[in-house]
Write a structure and sequence with these properties.
The chain is 1% helix and 51% strand. The protein contains one helix and 41 strands. β15 and β16 form a beta hairpin. The longest helix has 4 residues. The protein is globular and about 80 Å long. 52% of the residues are buried.
Length: 648
């Protein structure tokens, strides 16, 4: 991307990890290697293979990105961004390569490039190239459905400071002639607010899964959070068919989208890895000056904390993306294209090993402070008042590093923002040690940026590291801030290490209906036939509210889509009460859109709330639909409360 400079970064690849006791479902990268140059001429003294020689074959001296997707027929598309000719002149906003290479150990070879004439790679998406109007049009994601190919792109209004740029809109272009010509669809667009520049879907990553295309989005630039939308794969060009994840369910209003992961995030790539049964996400965290990786069991999360994929410090290549090759998606080896700014503006192919780790479902980034580089910004941790990182001082509980705060007056805290699921229970843990004169230390969670405290522990003198445990409900919040701090009175300090934040095991959102604030079911709950919410009517099993279905004929049910891991056993349970004339009630799990039933139990008249349990296997699915309903015959009703789905 032209002029998107970041601080120079050392090309020193280090294996760094923090281990927590838990399951071995998560993955971490190690043993990173550069394989070959992908574009441009070799730099002086460079010994990397350069199979494509793009400067002589297609007049490409410099370019970036390299977004790869499976186009079908044994071929892959690779979309690049702003492109210089062999003479160093910026003359194309984007170009597109095709590859059928399946042996990446010796480099990534192009079969051809889309050309406007022989020997010249074509600009596939036109841009005006006028500053403060449309400076460039850059691809950010690609996907193929059937014989139609799609590119998500952004229309850049102008470049700002390093890592910041401003977009007019993002949109989807499509090709029906094998990539030779592309049409920007006139309405498949996400228009930006040109005052706040804050639309959440200006850059994207696509994942095609289970009949949907999932679109992960960030705002323009590199400093936003990561949001999620999805659309049935045959309706990619229908902007009205997109639904946005609001933390618990899918809604039509894109402004209601809540983060699935906290940025600082730029140039993102997301894929599903069948070897590990994990979704993998990569992006540049400019505050950390590193390319990072997250992983998750489902497309909505919970996403792990950041793990360093490509580390950096103050000198080197200036790397800024890691676009994963689909050939990695059933493997423990992850191949990706990385862009660099130094010594030249171009792309290279790298690989890392992916390994089982024991971080499991901890969603804290740098939980033991071991991956904290000595940078001006301590991201993903931030300091209020005075504090920092003890590096190799022997103060850590485990490993070499720990966080600390230290001052003689005022509030001093070390903190981190985390994306959470609203109205969900979490357990926060951390190990804390403090000075002898400390009387007002606090470890807890709050609404970010000085908002109300959700839950905290107060502590005084802790001469040895002592575990702090805080259980809390996230309430309406999709982002919380965890912290450890002291009110200093004289020279006061507190040290923090080995922090974890884990979501409860129940996967059902709004499980007790207390958060449903209307009589009509709202996301994540929805209905078949006639159903709704009893609010403050005294019908609930616990709390004030419960769900119900009621009618005199037909099928009537309450339902919710729940995200699960494939081929795992789950237990679904709920408390249900019915009218005396109910004879044909059903409680169970099935696939979406009235798909096959995975498992259900039939029930008849239940005069009192009765707990029903159903054990099912998720099969090869990432989401299932739980339901409780009845075939009505006369005025028939059921009431439902305290629903749960828990992995066995």
């Amino acid at each position: 991307m032209k002029r998107k400079l970041i601080a120079k970064i050392a090309f020193v690849f280090l294996l760094v990890s923090t281990v927590f006791v838990g399951s071995t479902q998560a993955v971490s990268p190690s043993n990173i290697q550069m394989i070959a140059r992908v574009t441009g001429p070799a730099s002086p003294g460079e010994t990397l293979p350069n199979p494509n020689q793009t400067h002589t074959r297609w007049d490409i001296g410099g370019t970036d990105l390299g977004i790869i997707w499976d186009k079908g027929g044994g071929e892959y598309f690779i979309a690049f961004g702003d492109t210089n000719n062999a003479a160093g002149q910026w003359n194309r906003s984007n170009v597109l390569a095709v590859s059928s290479d399946t042996n990446l150990e010796d480099g990534l070879t192009f079969s051809r490039m889309i050309e406007s004439h022989p020997g010249f790679a074509k600009e596939i998406l036109y841009s005006k190239k006028i500053n403060n109007d449309e400076m460039t049009v850059i691809p950010t994601a690609g996907v193929t459905v059937g014989n139609r190919h799609y590119i998500h792109y952004m229309s850049v209004n102008h470049w700002g400071a390093a890592g910041r740029w401003y977009t007019n809109y993002s949109g989807i272009a499509y090709s029906d002639d094998n990539g030779q010509n592309w049409i920007k669809h006139p309405t498949a667009r996400w228009h930006n607010n040109k005052t706040a520049w804050d639309n959440k879907f200006q850059m994207a990553a696509f994942v095609k899964k289970d009949g949907f295309v999932y679109m992960y989005g960030t705002p323009n630039g590199r400093f936003g959070n990561i949001h999620l939308a999805r659309v049935p794969e045959q309706q990619l060009l229908n902007i009205g068919a997109y639904r946005y994840w609001n933390g618990n369910g899918w809604v039509a209003d894109q402004t209601a989208a809540q983060p699935v992961a906290i940025g600082v995030a730029g140039e993102m790539s997301v894929a599903y890895n069948t070897h590990f049964n994990r979704f993998i996400m990569t992006y540049l965290n400019e505050d950390r000056r590193s390319i990072v990786m997250r992983d998750a069991p489902t497309p909505v999360g919970p996403w792990s904390g950041e793990k360093i994929l490509v580390p950096g410090n103050l000198t080197g290549l200036g790397q800024y993306n890691a676009f994963m090759h689909p050939l990695s998606n059933n493997s423990s080896t992850l191949y990706f294209i990385m862009s660099t700014w130094h010594p030249d503006y171009n792309t290279r192919l790298l690989k890392v090993d992916l390994n089982d780790d024991q971080i499991s479902d901890n969603i804290i980034s740098a939980p033991g402070f071991e991956t904290q580089g000595d940078t001006p910004i301590m991201a993903p941790w931030y300091i209020q008042g005075s504090g920092g990182i003890d590096r190799d001082l022997g103060n850590a509980r485990t490993g070499n590093n720990n966080g600390f705060v230290y001052n003689d007056t005022g509030w001093n805290a070390i903190k981190q923002k985390v994306a959470v699921q609203p109205y969900t229970n979490y357990t926060l843990k951390g190990w804390v040690r403090s000075s002898d004169n400390n009387t007002e230390g606090y470890f807890g969670v709050r609404v970010p940026d000085g908002g109300p405290v959700i839950k905290e522990n107060k502590y005084g003198t802790l001469s040895d590291y002592t575990e702090q445990v805080v259980t809390f409900n996230s309430g309406p919040n999709a982002i919380v801030e965890i912290y450890n701090g002291v009110w200093a009175d004289g020279e006061t300090w507190s040290q923090l290490d080995d922090v974890s934040l884990v979501r409860e095991s129940n996967l059902v959102g709004h499980s007790s209906f207390e958060e449903q604030d209307t009589l009509t079911l709202t996301a994540p709950w929805y209905s078949n036939g006639y159903a709704g919410v009893d609010r403050n009517l005294g019908y609930a099993y616990t709390g004030e509210n419960n769900g119900f279905a009621r009618y005199d004929s037909g099928w009537n049910a309450i339902k919710q889509e729940v995200f699960v891991e494939p081929n795992q056993n789950y237990t679904l349970s709920a408390w249900i009460k019915t009218s005396a004339n109910n004879t044909d009630g059903y409680f169970g799990a099935r696939l979406l859109n009235n798909g096959p039933i995975l498992k259900e139990t039939q029930f008849s008249s239940l005069g009192e709330y009765t707990k029903l349990n159903v054990t099912f296997n998720s099969g090869n699915n990432h989401s299932v639909e739980l339901f409780a309903g009845m075939w009505a015959n006369g005025d028939t009703w059921i009431q439902v409360d305290d629903v749960s789905v828990v992995k066995n």
